[in-house]
Amino acid sequence: MKRHDALIESIRGAVSQMAAHKHDKKGDLFCLNLSAWIGERGAAIVEHIEAVEAELVAAREAQTRVVKRLRDLAKGWQELGDKAPWPASEKDLRVARVLRDEANWIESGKEAKDG
């Protein structure tokens, strides 16, 4: 990805140069040259965008699996406490609550409460 990061920076610089220089009324060879240079690199940029999008899809799928697993663990822990012949301890209830809070935190992106 470093190669693509450098390419994106190069294109950003070329666009800045095009905007900053004086434009000739007859024909702007400078901008035409930079536009062609940028266009030649378009395929690499599209490739980079597609790779990043694929990584994002994979990360979202992994997040969904983690959230489901946390919710399953919280449910199982809660059921274990409910079925025990003795009352569930505060610690057992807290474990289930923390697992649910972590699942909520992952889904929302907000800080989960520790309590």
Q: What's the layout of helices and strands?
A:
Elements: H1 2-20, H2 29-40, H3 42-83, H4 90-108
Helix pairs in contact: 1-2, 3-4
Short summary of the structure?
The protein is mainly alpha-helical. The chain contains four helices and no strands.
Describe the structure in your own words.
With 115 residues, the protein is mainly alpha-helical. It has helices spanning 2-20, 29-40, 42-83, 90-108. The longest helix has 42 residues, at 42-83.
Low-pLDDT runs of 5+ residues are none
Structural class: mainly alpha
Number of helices: 4
Give me the oligomer status. Answer: single chain
Task: Report the helical percentage.
Answer: over 70%
C-alpha end-to-end distance:
40 Å
H and E order:
HHHH
Overall mean pLDDT: 81
| C-alpha Rg (nearest Å) | 27 Å
Q: Let me know the number of strands.
A: 0
What would you call the shape?
rod-shaped
Beta content: under 5%
Largest sheet: none
